[in-house]
């Protein structure tokens, strides 16, 4: 069975993979967005192993007028919560100029067993 440290690593890798996949997809395209060009993103994933629920991840974002705000959150769930009650989150915003993403703010945090940490 995984330890809380390995669950933390799994959540971290899931967040990183989603950020790497989602942000370039939303920034792809020609030219600069206008006020009328608002794109919202809402995704939710349930993580299972052999049909057993072990956690979930949610992604939400707004892309408008050359700017972006995106948030990712995830937590253990189901049977894995008995071993490690953990959750993590990431949030970022900034602007998009052509093919360049310029972050203005980035937050990341984790909570395990009611004790949290942020960076």
- What number of structural domains do the residues give? 1
Q: Count the helices. How many?
A: 2
H-E order: HEEEHEEE
Task: Give me the secondary-structure category.
Answer: alpha+beta
What Rg is obtained from the alpha carbons, in whole angstroms? 16 Å
How many strands appear in the DSSP assignment? 6
Strand content: over 45%
Q: Characterize the biggest β-sheet.
A: 6 strands, antiparallel
Weakly predicted, low-confidence segments: none
Instruction: Name the shape in a single word.
Output: elongated
Mean pLDDT: 76
Helix percentage:
10-25%
- The N- to C-terminal Cα distance equals 28 Å
How is the largest sheet built, in terms of strand order?
1-2-3-4-5-6
Any overview of this molecule?
The protein is of the alpha+beta class. It has one domain (4-118). It contains 2 helices and 6 strands. A 6-stranded antiparallel sheet has the order 1-2-3-4-5-6, covered by helices on one side. Strand 4 (86-97) and strand 5 form a beta hairpin. The longest helix has 24 residues, at 4-27. The two termini are 28 Å apart.
List the helices and strands and how they pair.
Elements: H1 4-27, E1 38-49, E2 52-64, E3 67-76, H2 80-83, E4 86-97, E5 100-112, E6 115-118
Antiparallel strand pairs: 1-2, 2-3, 3-4, 4-5, 5-6
Q: What is this entry, summarized?
A:
This protein is an alpha+beta fold. The chain is built from two helices and six strands, in the order αβββαβββ.
